[in-house]
Structures are given as structure tokens and as C-alpha cells.
Amino acid sequence: MIKKIAKTFRKNYPKNKKYFRNVCNIDILPSSLNQKNKRLNTLYKNIHQEIIDQCREGSQKAQFQLYKLYYKAMFNVSLRIVNDQMEAEDVIQEAFLSAFKKIDTYKGEVSFGAWLKRIVVNRSLDCLKKRKVQFEAINERTTEIAESRMDTRELDARVLKQSIQELSDGYRVVLSLYLIEGYDHEEISQILGISNSASRTQLLRAKNKLREILKGKEIFSYN
After folding, report:
1. What's the distance, Cα to Cα, between the start and end of the chain in Å?
2. Please, what is the angle between helix 112-130 and helix 85-101, to 10°?
3. What is the domain extent for residue 162?
């Protein structure tokens, strides 16, 4: 069921409503999702190789083709991080320019989409830093935070999306990187420059805060 939630996120919330249960019980997602992503990266990493090679040769037509292929997905990645459409648009333009300038450094070790997404994520985080967003500094000891049990009701994916957007930047970024983009804690710690335990604790706090928001909307009720 959780995989369906992640799939819904990646499809940018289609018009037809879908309902899910157990939205916040997401601990099992990343390991299985990351393994699937790695298999897909290996399988599809050369799917646009001809266009990529043409981009290396400076073909503007090929660059435009690549832009059209990846624009929507990369825009959604940035939007989930910066939470502002105009800023996300600026980030995407900068990210594609950067990608085309250093496309020779792409060695095909991962899919082109994964390589490009990392550039988009980094640019999006740079945008947040301009707002002086500080990711919470946490001790190496992982803080234990009790998670209250909740009764779940059917939840519209749009409500979940809106609730995630209400999180603070720090919480929203970690939750998005982990749940939606499929990064594990080691990768998140490298991206954000925080410890592995800090990533785990930040995610736990983000999930608890999301529960509070959903409870306020009477989506969940505590036992």
C-alpha cells in the first residue's frame, strides 16, 4: 500500500482521486524502493544514450529533446523541496544549464535521470540556503521519539500533499528525499551535510509533525 503512495507522488497527483490507508507508517518503504531503483538504473541507464551523446557534441536540438524528456519530473523534484513554483522554475533552468555544461562528466554509472536529479536536488537546497534555512543540528545519539498509535481513515492523496507542504522546510526536505525521491539515510546525510543519525531523527520528527497536521484536519485520531 505504501508503494502505491510513492507511485502516486511520482505521477504528480493525477486528476482521478485515489485513497490510501496507513499513510504515515512509511518505515518499510526506502529499502525496497531503493533496491528497485538501483535495478531500474542498471536496466535503463542507456535509454537516451544517443541523445546524451549528441548533447556532448553541443547539439542544441538534442539538449532541447533532453529538456523535454526530463523537465516535468525534475520540476516536481525541485517543487517538493523549495515549495514555490517560481523558485522551482528558476532552479530547473539553472540545473539544466549546469548539466549541459558538465555532461562530459556523466559516465553512465547510474541512469541519466538519477544523475540529473542529484543536480536538481543540490540546486534546490542552494535555493533554500538563500532563505537561511538551517537543518537541525542533532547529537550523534539518535533521539528516541515516541510515536503514538493512530487509527487511520481513508486519505485523499491531495490532502497528504497539502499537509506535507505545510511542514517546515527542514522537515519537508528530509521527508521528501526519503519517502518520495527514494534516497536512504546515508545519501541524505551526504546531500544535507548532516550525520546519519541526524537524518533519521529529522525524518522521525517530520513524520510526527505530519501526523499532528493530519490529526488537526481530522484525518487521524489518537487511541
Report:
1. 22
2. 130
3. 2-37+148-222
